TrEMBL record, chain A:
InterPro entries: AA_ABC_transptr_permease_3TM (IPR010065), ArtM/GltK/GlnP/TcyL/YhdX-like (IPR043429), MetI-like (IPR000515), MetI-like_sf (IPR035906). The keyword Membrane applies. Keywords: Cell membrane, Membrane, Transmembrane, Transmembrane helix, Transport. This is Amino acid ABC transporter permease. It comes from Fructobacillus papyrifericola. It comes from the Bacteria. The lineage of its organism: Bacteria, Bacillati, Bacillota, Bacilli, Lactobacillales. The keyword Membrane applies. It is a multi-pass membrane protein. Its main location: membrane. Belongs to the binding-protein-dependent transport system permease family. It is found in: Cell membrane.
From TrEMBL, chain B:
Keywords: Signal, Transport. It holds the Pfam family SBP_bac_3. Transmembrane segments: none annotated. It comes from Fructobacillus papyrifericola. Residues 60-276 form the Ionotropic glutamate receptor C-terminal domain. This is Transporter substrate-binding domain-containing protein.
């Protein structure tokens, strides 16, 4: 563990950037994803088509290409660092997958729930946000957990655009210590430090919600 | 209660798995370590009748993949071919060169794992690197310089010594040390390779690229809006790297390099790759007979 002691500050700062990027992207992609899921299910054909186009586009293009697009092309117009470009790309990319999970969740809820809510005088918006969505999220949790774990790991895309994250620092350490193997093992352990609790957390949440049903 | 037990089991099982993975990692690293103590590069080369060289795939003039053939082409690659032939003559075997793409973070590890026999990939000789690999005599004179946009007004690295400036470098190059010494206040951003650094410079992600002048001239030849400024910061020649503790192979390589320099092959290769590069003084590169 000599390498860790020697480059501790690099690993720690990279870990910080990875956590920051993951948290921002997690919130942003959850909001965006839910929005586009609702858009896809809209009764207005045009809105549904728009939502579908968004989801199809972002889930079928490699994350690296979206990232490079923001870092190299968009940055010419709107100044942004590699960290910002990477986090924005990660949010958009993940939101497409989350939209699909949430959409599946909503479709799994019995039609009667919506009909009943509407019959009781709730507006469509109220019925969606208070009756259908809470149940839909419950159904979608295992699949959302998958997306969140992928998101944390995918944040390593920041390394390609100088995003200062864990992978970026890991590359630096590997290149300057010449011990590629140990450097990446340390990086891998740091990712586990994030993803394992997340995994178990989601599992725990799933069990808790099962019980409350 | 039952569920808690299950969860506890799950958590401990994955912790054990992680531990096993780490142990396996160290075991593998250890084996690789043992391997390199016993493997003699020259003996291996003689046995397999090939020399497997690690070369760059993204560096114009030294090792750049030709998109048609899929093979790297450049000064390093041609020198590797000539050296292979000459070393073959010296040891009395017919040797063929093969090539493996390497990058900054993989080249040393590949040498240690004996996936490749030698590295000819714009590798600067440094004290730190000499602790883990063996270097031949210098085969190419180089030094860090500055690539900036022509209308940027930047004349030297002192113009970039401020917290609002970002200097782009390629991962694992000596440029990081140069910038730390010459412009300690500037931000340094390491990109994956020279091509990515050039793209980032064009996108305005930094004000300059710092790396070896010969590589910068290669970038200029494709990007005429940019030029090299600031002179050479420190003389830092390239060397051919072999695994640590390989006196036999290093001696053969040095001897072969001397022969190529004497019989004109070396100058012919310099002429071939750097003869057309504007701004580069050829007489500084060629060896005088």
């Amino acid at each position: 563990m000599m390498i860790f002691d020697h480059y501790r500050s690099l690993f720690i700062s990279g870990f910080g950037y990875t956590i920051a990027a993951s948290l921002i992207a997690l919130v942003a992609s959850l909001v965006l994803g839910t929005f586009f899921a609702l858009l896809q299910l809209s009764k207005k054909r045009a809105w549904a088509a728009l939502g579908n186009a968004y989801v199809q586009f972002f889930r079928n293009v490699p994350l690296l290409i979206i990232t490079l697009f923001f870092y190299l092309a968009v940055a010419k117009v709107i100044k942004m660092t590699g960290f910002v470009a990477g986090t924005v790309a990660l949010s958009l990319y993940t939101s497409a997958f989350i939209a699909e999970s949430v959409r599946a969740g909503i479709l799994a809820i019995d039609k009667g729930q919506m009909e009943g809510a509407l019959a009781n005088g709730l507006s469509y918006g109220q019925a969606m946000s208070r009756i259908v969505l809470p149940q839909a999220f419950k159904v979608a949790i295992p699949s959302l957990g998958n997306q969140f774990i992928n998101l944390v790991k995918n944040s390593s895309i920041l390394a390609f655009v100088g995003g200062l994250d864990l992978m970026y620092q890991g590359n630096l350490v590997a290149a300057s210590s010449f011990d590629t193997f140990t450097s990446y093992i340390i990086v891998g352990l740091f990712y586990l430090l994030l993803t394992l609790p997340l995994s178990y957390g989601m599992q725990y949440l799933e069990e808790r919600l099962q019980e409350s049903r | 209660m039952e569920k808690n037990k299950k969860r506890l089991f799950g958590i401990s099982a994955s912790l054990i798995l992680v531990l096993l993975l780490v142990l396996f990692g160290f075991w593998a690293a250890n084996r690789a370590h043992e391997n390199r103590m016993h493997q003699d590069t020259l003996a291996r080369v003689k046995k397999t009748k090939t020399i497997n060289w690690g070369v760059k795939t993204d560096t114009k003039l030294f090792g750049l993949v030709n998109t048609k053939s899929g093979q790297s082409e450049g000064f390093d690659v041609d020198l590797a071919k000539a050296l292979t032939k000459q070393i073959g003559k010296q040891v009395g075997e017919q040797l063929t060169p093969t090539f493996t793409p390497v990058n900054a973070s993989s080249k040393v590890q590949l040498l240690k794992n004996t996936n490749i026999d030698g590295v000819l990939a714009v590798m600067t000789i440094t004290k730190e690197r000499a602790k883990v690999v063996d270097f031949s005599k210098p085969y190419f004179p180089a030094g860090n310089s500055l690539l900036v946009k022509k209308d940027s007004g930047i004349q030297s690295i002192q113009d970039l010594n401020g917290p609002s400036k970002t200097i782009l470098i390629a991962l694992g190059t000596t440029a990081a040390d140069t910038v730390k010494k010459e412009a300690p206040k500037a931000k340094v951003l390491a990109l994956q390779d020279y091509a990515s650094a050039m793209q980032a410079l064009k996108a305005g992600q930094g004000q300059a690229i710092v790396t070896d002048n010969a590589i910068l001239y290669g970038l200029v030849s494709e990007n005429p809006d940019y030029h090299v400024v600031g002179g050479i910061m420190g003389y830092a020649p390239y060397g051919i790297a072999f695994d640590h503790n390989q006196p036999g192979m290093v001696r053969q390589a040095n001897q072969a390099l001397d022969v190529l320099k004497k019989n004109g092959t070396y100058n012919a290769l310099i002429e071939k790759w750097f003869g057309q590069v504007p701004g580069l003084n050829l007489s500084e590169l060629e060896v005088q007979a």
